[in-house]
Amino acid sequence: MPSLPNLVWIRSFEAASRLGSFTAAGTELGLTQAAVSTHVSALETQLGHQLLERTTRKVDLTASGKAYLPAVRKALQELATSTEGLFGSRSTGTVTIRAPISEAALIMAPALADFRRQHPGLDIRLLSAIWADTVLETGIDIEIRLGTGNWPDSPAEPLGPEVIVPVCHPEMAASLNAPEDLLAQPRIHVLGFDDHWPRYLEACDLPRPERHASITVDTSLAAVELAAAHGGIALLLGKVAARPVANGRLSVPLDIRVPSARTHHLLSRTPAVSPKTATQTVEAWIRELFAG
Hints:
The protein has helices spanning 7-19, 22-29, 33-47, 63-87, 101-118, 170-174, 196-203, 220-228, 238-246, 277-291, and strands at residues 52-54, 59-61, 94-100, 123-129, 142-147, 157-158, 163-167, 187-190, 214-217, 233-237, 258-259, 263-268. Helix 1 (7-19) packs across helix 4, helix 2 (22-29) packs across helix 3 (33-47) and helix 5 crosses helix 9. The chain is an alpha/beta fold. The two termini are 36 Å apart. It has a five-stranded mixed sheet with strand order 4-3-5-12-6, with helices on one face. It has a five-stranded mixed sheet with strand order 9-8-10-7-11, with helices on both faces. Strand 3, helix 5 and strand 4 form a beta-alpha-beta unit. It has three domains: 1-88, Orthogonal Bundle (Arc Repressor Mutant, subunit A); 90-159 and 262-292, D-Maltodextrin-Binding Protein, domain 2 (3-Layer(aba) Sandwich), CATH 3.40.190.10; 163-259, D-Maltodextrin-Binding Protein, domain 2 (3-Layer(aba) Sandwich).
């Protein structure tokens, strides 16, 4: 196959595009920043198209890179799966995922049963924590964090943009016909998301009342339960709210969605040079899950 690109170049391109940095890609692959940059440049030369835009702080996909990346990821995953199926691999054992408690309960746990049916040979441990800076347990393969992505301990792969949406009991939602109707309802505050209500009211061009009945909880999971019990209106991240809304426990009363300053990120904790195929399979599932 004379036209097939060098697999090492392909791996460097995939890692750099996913992590947004040649340095981070080098750390994951056990290479230098210069080596990753050289690999990508060689791949671009062979293909005759620029795949990545370079800046002083990060790299971004070009239009050609965006078109090429899905096929690259699919090919690498199929190669890893075939290798494991034919020859066995380092994938035995358990893949351990650590995620914030609300994401673990509301996004990942409900989807795990279907994932296990597709991959019956995989064992999964799903651990949860309330705060992102909780001391990391040893033996974590994959971590999900919510924030801006500026963590010094590991490269973070963003899992797509997030929005802020209001949710409440369906009966309460039926009585809310305009943004100003929000002001008459109890507000549910989630610790750590202190900017949500001010930003949402500003986006609706509404004043911020000096005093207002409210309840404060420490997790989005608690906010979901409180809102479902007619406790008021909560502002949640769209991906966290999606399943309770889909199953009818909550409704979105206003179709006004405000971009969130924080997004979910994937941090891989497996050895960079020799990742487990099982971990790669779970990471691919997480990307698809959070993309939806």
